[in-house]
Specification:
The longest helix has 17 residues, at 79-95. The protein has 37 helices and four strands. The chain is an all-alpha fold and 699 residues long. The strands form two sheets. A two-stranded antiparallel ribbon has the order 1-2.
């Protein structure tokens, strides 16, 4: 009967993300197939096209009656996944503006989200039946659906409360969260639901996980009542959570079964750069949860917001938990806190480093990766990282970088990379091993530039790898650019010949970005790379603007002829390479005075970055006479776009006493709790704070 009804819908008149919806009936039938492979493919195709990135199309809404029938049928082979799909469509529809008009990919107006909610609301009674199903995979999404879509909120709360004595911890936590969802959705039940949550939080007869959930969601219902006692109470409940309740074992590695061992250095698919293949592999791990309380604690951290000291205390408890799953998930939460908020995070860094355990490579890899991402504030973990690297080499041998066991290999590599990121030469033997043997060498290249003290060992190896790049193969461009970047960071002029050769090869194959990067690296060596002028000179007239700008900048650095390059740089101020041109003009200084009129004109640009580039060069060329206009323009651009702050502060720092009018804003920056700077990254923000402190100290 359902199949006949599916065919009665005019699917051809509707569309999805990739064209006509005529394939939707096949996917719906596939979801009911007895074959698991067919079902998986059908769900995947539906999500990718008819529910693409969460979108709701007319064909999505038209599918709902059939999805409800499938979910209601006891013989459907995967009811839980069907209800999960219903829940996803409903959630997205709720998030969309009920009065808004949206458009399908072919430009047709659509209010499918309103239609979808009408269908789900009209059938919401089904969720009441499903929460009593014997299959937990059916019950779990049904609990959430009940809280979102049942019109009678009082009844929803009543049904949910009746489920609390159930055996499953995950379901009990879902019940508590969903009661709060109903309370937030309907003011009529808010008070009673909040009171129930408060009583539940104090009920010592309940499992501590449930009481913790009640505590957090009580705060979620009334965030304005977040008092001083909430975090200590949460910490106390975390301490009460018994190891047995989470199924953990103090000595069991967390999640090891989820990471199958594979041969070291397994080649990616043809044409796919290893960096890209690794990024997709990491995505598989992203969002994986290892403890029932993780989503609950994440919600609590969100509620606590800028109360960094209290969140740090909570994370300290999580990182010291007896449950390896709690510890593992806390690493990510701590990384996010440190990455987003300023403060003294040395205590958390040390606790993350404490998760570097040779017997648990899975957790060690996450800890090492977090420490690598938090450089330079991961400095307190330096000795722990070095000890872990040495312990791995002692246990698995000097070839551990290429260990066959994926977990061991990944943990060791991440620890080496984090140690190298701190500039610690104890990482050098492993980096050299990677470069010499070739296994995952690209991962070593990414951090080699931080080991400047070992340039004599690293430069020849990196130069050799650069010489082996096939510039006709576009998939190798990422590797080429990484090698060029590392050689530039090392600052060893011995790399200049290899870089000059790379410029020629990249230009020949029209790999303009790589050619420009190599030219900039050559320029960083100054007169010591003057032998390459025959390569650089002609490229100052290159058709590609990026290469032309890099070559012109290199001409200045290699031979210092201001008269020859200033007119070229002024021309480049009218291109998208105006930042590079302005920076070089600033380095030239007073000899670039012919550029001043054009730079002053750029101060009126609508784009704040253009103004920043212009006035920075204006100061470096014109000096004190330009100071008032420079400071005013910098402060305005900073106010418009916080991402300019590192450039702004670098210029203000060079200005010395002339930057005094900017002091109030600089002092204000040091009072902010959130990280700032370009990309709001840890290194940029730490650099920003350092510049601010330097400027205020000189005031």
């Amino acid at each position: 009967m359902m199949i006949n009804e599916i065919d009665s819908v005019d699917w051809e008149s509707m569309g999805h993300a990739y064209g006509p919806a005529s394939d939707v009936p096949g996917w719906l039938r596939g979801m009911a197939s007895a074959d698991p492979g067919t079902r998986n493919e059908a769900f995947s195709d539906f999500y990718n096209a008819a529910h693409h990135q969460g979108d709701v199309y007319p064909c999505t809404a038209a599918s709902l009656p059939f999805l409800f029938k499938m979910a209601d049928s006891p013989v459907s082979p995967d009811r839980g996944s069907v209800i999960g799909l219903l829940l996803s469509i409903g959630r997205k529809s709720l998030d969309m503006d009920p009065e808004g008009v949206y458009f399908t990919p072919d430009g047709t107006e659509s209010r499918a989200h309103v239609d979808a909610l009408a269908v789900i609301g009209g059938r919401a009674e089904a969720f009441v039946r499903w929460v009593a199903a014997p299959d937990q995979e059916v019950r779990r999404p049904a609990i959430e659906g009940l809280g979102l879509f049942l019109d009678d909120s009082a009844r929803a709360v009543e049904v949910l409360r009746s489920l609390l004595p159930g055996d499953g911890l995950v379901e009990r936590l879902l019940v508590v969260r969903t009661v709060a969802t109903v309370a937030l959705r309907d003011p009529a039940v808010h008070g009673a639901a909040a009171g129930w949550l408060e009583a539940l939080a104090g009920d010592t007869g309940q499992a501590p996980e449930v009481r913790l959930a009640a505590l957090v969601h009580r705060v979620r219902c009334t965030p304005g009542e977040l008092g001083e006692a909430v975090v200590p109470a949460a910490v106390g409940l975390i301490r009460e959570i018994e190891q047995a309740e989470t199924g953990g074992d103090d000595d069991a590695p967390c999640g090891a079964e989820a990471e199958p061992d594979v041969a070291a250095g397994a080649a990616p698919s043809p044409g796919v750069p290893p960096q890209v293949a690794a990024a997709f592999k990491d995505l598989e791990q992203h969002g994986r949860v290892h403890a029932p309380t993780t989503s609950l604690l994440e919600a609590f951290h969100t509620l606590l917001g800028d109360r960094v000291s209290e969140r740090s205390a909570l994370l300290a408890e999580q990182l010291c938990s007896a449950d390896p799953g709690v510890r593992y998930d806390a690493i990510r939460m701590a990384r996010e806190l440190i990455g987003q908020w300023r403060g003294d995070h040395s205590g958390l860094v040390v606790l993350i480093a404490g998760c570097l355990l040779p017997e648990d490579a899975y957790t060690s890899a996450a800890a090492a990766e977090a420490l690598g991402a938090l450089v330079p504030v991961s400095e307190p973990a330096r000795e722990a990282l070095a000890a872990y690297v040495e312990a791995c080499r002692a246990e698995h041998g000097p070839g551990v970088w290429a260990a066959r066991e994926r977990l061991v290999r990944r943990a060791h590599q991440e620890a080496v990379r984090a140690l190298a990121g701190l500039g610690d030469l104890r990482a050098l033997p492993c980096v050299l091993e990677a470069l010499d043997e070739g296994t995952d060498a690209w991962r070593a290249v990414q951090v080699a530039g931080h080991l400047g003290g070992a340039a004599g060992d690293l430069t020849p190896r990196l130069s050799k790898l650069l010489a082996e790049v096939d510039f006709s193969d576009a998939s190798q461009s990422m590797s080429a650019n990484a090698l060029v970047s590392a050689l530039r960071e090392l600052g060893d002029p011995a790399a200049a010949p290899a870089l000059a050769t790379a410029v020629v090869a990249a230009v020949r194959e029209e790999q303009w970005h790589t050619a420009a990067s190599a030219l900039k690296a050559l320029a960083s060596f100054g007169r010591e790379a003057a032998f390459a002028l025959d390569v650089v000179g002609p490229l100052a007239d290159a058709q590609d603007v990026t290469v032309r700008a890099a070559a012109t900048a290199a001409l200045w650095e290699l031979e210092g002829d201001a008269a020859g390059v200033v007119p070229r740089l002024v021309e480049l101020l009218d291109t998208h390479e105006n930042d590079e041109a302005a920076a070089v003009l600033g380095r030239i200084g007073q000899a670039a005075a012919p550029a001043l009129p054009r730079l002053r004109k750029m101060m009126a640009a609508g784009y704040e970055w253009t103004r920043v580039y212009a006035v920075t060069a204006l100061w470096d060329i014109g000096g004190d006479a330009e100071a008032p206009a420079v400071v005013g323009t910098l402060l305005t651009a900073w106010a418009e776009n916080d991402a300019t702050s590192n450039h702004v502060l670098a210029c203000l720092s060079r200005m010395g006493p002339a930057a005094r009018p900017a002091l109030p804003r600089v002092r204000e920056e040091l009072t902010l709790l959130r990280r700032s700077g370009r990309f709001r990254s840890v290194p940029h923000d730490e650099e920003l704070q350092s510049a601010c402190r330097s400027i205020t100290a000189r005031a």
